[in-house]
Amino acid sequence: MKPVVQFGTMQMLVESLLDGFVTAKDVLASGNTGIGTGAGVDGELIMLDGVAYQVDVHGHVNKVAGDFPIAFGDVHQADFKPLKHFDNITLDDLQKEILKEVGTENLFFAVKMTGEFKTVETRAAAKSEKPYPGLGEIAKTQVIFDKDDVKGTMVVYFTPLVFQGVGVPGFHQHFLSDNLDFGGHVLGATLKSVDVSIQILSGVTINLPTNNEDYKKADLTDLSSLNGVIADAES
């Protein structure tokens, strides 16, 4: 059983620590499947079969170069097992079905959904420059995209609530269309005909920006606004 390997934390993004401290090549060395965001929250990333793609603020899908800087990411070595096929179900209802099948909300796990999606709503943000705004401010300027009748893949990570601030608690999902013309962080979806597979993960390995002076000097002890900012930014 393998862990999810995480680069950075959500609390870092909330507190404006948005430097890219690893590259796409570094992240992909730890796994072939994942999600994330670039330095300054530069679009939304999805990694499939060892290739990283960025959905930028204009909705364009770009294959990412090895030196692309990443501020936050989750990645793992894929070993998904088939769960079920689902027809005509909302993403919210599917998440409930997945939790029933898993039987616990206390483990990390990854989900992969492939097939036909009736509707998908995503978002992406424009890259920020120093001095960086916090994640809450960035969320106010995010751009939302909608697509109907699209074939693609959704990569999902589930993080137990107790790890709030380390990751995004609950389900965190990114989408990429088969023809590479649509994707992003998923806000909602209706699934027409999809195969769902799952991979239970052994835990989380966290990589931090040990050479970044802003990170080392930052006060990350105030968690009072964390829940609200993450909820607003990720939903």
Describe the structure.
By secondary structure, this protein is of the alpha+beta class. The chain has helices at 10-14, 24-28, 91-102, 135-140, 213-217, 226-234, and strands at 4-7, 22-23, 33-38, 42-48, 51-55, 61-63, 69-76, 81-90, 109-124, 143-159, 170-177, 183-200, 204-207. The strands form two sheets. Strands 1, 2, 3, 4, 5, 6, 7 and 13 form an eight-stranded mixed beta sheet that branches. Strand 3 (33-38) and strand 4 form a beta hairpin. The two termini are 30 Å apart. The model has no long low-confidence stretch (mean pLDDT 94).
Share of helix, binned? 10-25%
User: How many DSSP H or I helices?
Assistant: 6
SS class: alpha+beta
Largest sheet: 8 strands, mixed
> What is the strand content?
over 45%
Shape: globular
Radius of gyration: 16 Å
Uncertain segments: none
Indicate the mean pLDDT.
94
SSE ordering: EHEHEEEEEEHEHEEEEHH
Distance between the termini: 30 Å
**Count of beta strands:** 13
Topology summary:
Layout: E1 4-7, H1 10-14, E2 22-23, H2 24-28, E3 33-38, E4 42-48, E5 51-55, E6 61-63, E7 69-76, E8 81-90, H3 91-102, E9 109-124, H4 135-140, E10 143-159, E11 170-177, E12 183-200, E13 204-207, H5 213-217, H6 226-234
Parallel strand pairs: 1-13
Antiparallel strand pairs: 1-7, 2-7, 3-4, 3-7, 4-5, 5-6, 8-12, 9-10, 9-12, 10-11, 11-12
Brief write-up:
The protein has helices spanning 10-14, 24-28, 91-102, 135-140, 213-217, 226-234, and strands spanning 4-7, 22-23, 33-38, 42-48, 51-55, 61-63, 69-76, 81-90, 109-124, 143-159, 170-177, 183-200, 204-207.
